[in-house]
């Protein structure tokens, strides 16, 4: 059993990583493998909306210049995915958004690569922006 945690902060050892480690300790104490993937300090461009991932059906994004395709496979291999992000202006940082847009598009265009996995998310913030707004 393995959980892959995503650190969406530019800081490798900041508050987001600290919060991930708190969860990670509980998991490892329960015999679950825990790995952190730090993407928040990477140059990750946004989705080009070319839909090639759906046309090619090869579990790949055609954009080059980052390791998105390797990260897709790491997420696919994990049993659980924990998304960790700081709050930037009541949202997630642009890098994290670019990462998630492409990760999810490749997944959903290829039959749902993360189906049946356990998912969870945490955020680190200074003041406000953690509340989830649900519309009916
Ligand atoms: C550009 C920017 C925007 C931010 N916007 C918010 C915000 O809207 N609300 C908030 O509470 N904190 C905000 N913060 C503070 C961070 O969310 C907070 O310091 C967080 O703990 C940083 O996590 P890290 O140490 O993992 O990078 C912002 C920080 C930055 C750099």
Mean pLDDT: 96
What's the CATH topology label?
A: Rossmann fold
What general outline do the C-alpha atoms trace? globular
Element-level helix/strand string: EHEHHEHE
* CATH architecture level-2 label: 3-Layer(aba) Sandwich
Which CATH class applies here? Alpha Beta
Could you describe the largest sheet, including whether it forms a barrel? 4 strands, parallel
What does this structure look like?
With 136 residues, this protein is of the alpha/beta class. It has one domain (2-124): 3-Layer(aba) Sandwich (Rossmann fold). It contains four helices and four strands; from the N terminus they run βαβααβαβ. The chain has helices spanning 15-29, 52-56, 68-77, 94-108; strands at 2-7, 33-38, 80-86, 118-124. Strands 2-1-3-4 form a four-stranded parallel β-sheet, with helices on both faces. Strand 3 (80-86), helix 4 and strand 4 (118-124) form a beta-alpha-beta unit. Helix 3 (68-77) packs across helix 4 (94-108). The longest helix is centred in the first third of the chain and has 15 residues, at 15-29. The structure holds flavin mononucleotide. Flavin mononucleotide binds at residues 9, 11, 14-16, 86-90, 124-129. Flavin mononucleotide (FMN) binds at residues 9, 11, 14-16, 86-90, 124-129.
